[in-house]
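INSTRUCTION: Work out how this chain folds

Token vocabulary: learned, describes local backbone geometry

RECORD BEGINS BELOW THIS LINE
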Amino acid sequence: MNKKLISYVFPVYNESENLAKLYESLNGAISLLQDKYLFEIIFVNDGSKDNSLSKLIELQEKDTRCKIINFSRNFGHQIAITAGIDYARGDAVIIMDADLQDPPSVSRDLINKWEDGFEVVYAQRKTRQDRIFKKVTAHLFYWVLDSLANISIPKDTGDFRLMDRKVIDVLKSFRERNRFLRGLSAYVGYKQTAVLFDRDLRYAGKTNYSLSKMMKLAFDGLTSFSTVPLDLILRLGWIVSFFSFLGIVYAVILRFFFPSITVSGWTFLVCATLFIGGVQMIMLGIVGTYIGRIYTEVQQRPLYIIESVIAEPE
């Protein structure tokens, strides 16, 4: 009986303090399944500035199941996951973060659901050990995304998920630059289900996802799966035009029926000009964002550049 191959993909950026513990936890989780499955562990070093690469090389020398994809520079979390997916050979691929907030033991539950016939199994957070600000902003993000996106993306899910080979092959054909993989995995369809888990605190080090990166990811998710911002421009334009018309009627009435109380109107003129100018800038910014995405797509540059691949020869 041929064993199925399970591929684990870990994007790594400045995670040197977590890698030994991550490998230990993962090895403990998959050791219980070695009679039934084969495993490969793909680490994508996303231009780390610490000694993550040397730590990964140590792991690879100790365990030939480990493979290292070493980027020439930092290309970002979503691109690192994409590279791992591109190189994974497994019948199923499990994506996890390297900070141990995603417990490796939960991956066994994902595999069990996969064996039940599900082709996408996403880990859904039952509880999360985060700060209040992170919880509030995450809740707001999923609410906005659920309200505006053209597809249904499960709430309280990250990139921690298992995908069947047929799903992976479809995702590999999507080469867009501004990637939101949890949205893409929902977009492809197939038979999907959730596994609830308690998300842990980061094991060591500081998060590499700053507020600006979180906002960019949220914006990528919204603009990748919704044209609502463009629709809002038209609606906002109609609203502004309506109030502008009321202002014109008001000014004409004062001018012809109450000339004695008519003032120069400097304040009104300045406020109106600034208001309309601000609205126009917002609208141009939204349109510019979509145009910028078109620009980056037509350039057809590679999503990532690999400096080296470190693995046991086939």
